[in-house]
Design brief:
Number of helices: 2
Number of domains: 1
Radius of gyration: 20 Å
Distance between the termini: 51 Å
Strand content: 15-25%
Structural class: alpha+beta
Helix content: 25-40%
């Protein structure tokens, strides 16, 4: 194995360790009026037209403008 192949192999190993499954996280954008009750745990449901992956581990809530 030459030096270039060793470097390439090391680069591939590093890349693999940083790969995140694109189904493990999801970002949902909400208006402030809906995000605050969720944060305070007064609202526990948010319905969407799509089904979430069973691989999902984290849900990120982005509050739209003007809060952002």
């Amino acid at each position: 194995m030459n030096d270039n192949e060793k470097i390439s192999q090391k680069a591939n190993i590093k890349k693999q360790s940083y790969i995140v499954n694109n189904k493990s996280d999801i970002i949902i954008s909400l208006d402030e009026q809906f995000a605050q009750p969720i944060e305070k745990r007064k609202k526990i449901y948010e319905f969407r037209k799509y089904k979430l992956s069973e691989e999902m581990k984290r849900l990120w809530i982005y509050v739209r403008q003007p809060v952002a």
